[in-house]
């Protein structure tokens, strides 16, 4: 007897509803090809209804006391913690990453929820008294209206939690479009958000592909759009939404580099490089996909390969798994094609991860750790973001040469250096052109007290997600200049200057 495949619902005005869409996509377990659910590509009417609900809810939500907003997120972080195991299992089933990495995905989003609970301090303005005779000036940070978020498949918990908690805590309402490839954990997080007390219409969820993205960019009632995903789509979103008069922030593709100096702690450096290159099967915008080995560090390649060869490839729910499957059959085919092009274009294949033997998962989208040396610009494996477990090794004679090599790449999401020299580390952080710098830290994504600060071709828009910058993104600064006269006081004559004397 067959079991009906569940459908992923829309969230509109506080109700989880069955879409009337005629076009649907399967949510597939990438380790087994089992169809877990079906997700709709929402209709135009459904998208408009979600935005209308958010617009209506904004009228009252914007006036909700800041303490009441904060308490919702205090409750929400508690619910996420209580349901961590369930959330991680759901994430692993639909996305493929290991259970441990899935918990990390959720936890990094949870940190932003905790930060949102501190909105009372974060949203404070400024004041100066007697800026002129009897004149005070102060600023307030007011909510801007309906905001929208478009999130990618690789972090279906963390990145939605980067977006809607901060936007809503600031007094806005939100329309979320998660990835149609793995929306189930996102929807469970949304259920918990409603359970925490987010009112009807304040948070809405639609599903879809290109048409839904364009609808978000074009809708006149959406004031701001936050996007994380590929450079191609992010560039389109930024241009289209900006032309429609919206605030836009787009975190996009990357090609992150690390420098390994010969004075680095060898085991620490190699272990960190491998974890950052191959964790989540390389499907991270902050993955270390290029390592520049300086001087004698080039002799460490055999040990790097040996350590990579020992990493366990299996389903994400299997104990001890280091590398799970890629998100889809198409992603696997693309990664394998790029590996083939790397060989054809002259890079040396030190470790081939194609067609690994994964007992019990013959139909999974697996590619094992793959390492190339002798990689140069102009090769597809260097010029393209592979988004798979492929590590490119580059040789440099000096630190100056290594920094110049990194600065020649147009992307600037993150970079790292492994060294025991404070002087070398300081030189690196001063001269390298990337937004986020790691010193003996392979993936330098900052905690939410600070802002995510990707740069170059990895980012469009001035303000990053979470941290201090996102408060500015999700609020409008109003400056008020006020003078109060005492009863009975007599003002002077007409003043036609711009002075406040």
TrEMBL record:
It is an enzyme of class 1 (oxidoreductase). InterPro entries: Ald_DH/histidinol_DH, Ald_DH_C, Ald_DH_CS_CYS, Ald_DH_N, Aldehyde_DH_dom, MeMal-semiAld_DH. Residues 17-480 form the Aldehyde dehydrogenase domain. The keyword Oxidoreductase applies. Its EC number is 1.2.1.27. One of its GO terms (biological process) is thymine catabolic process. Keywords: NAD, Oxidoreductase. One of its GO terms (molecular function) is methylmalonate-semialdehyde dehydrogenase (acylating, NAD) activity. Pfam families: Aldedh. Belongs to the aldehyde dehydrogenase family. PANTHER family: MALONATE-SEMIALDEHYDE DEHYDROGENASE, METHYLMALONATE-SEMIALDEHYDE DEHYDROGENASE [ACYLATING], MITOCHONDRIAL. This is methylmalonate-semialdehyde dehydrogenase (CoA acylating). It comes from Pseudoduganella ginsengisoli.
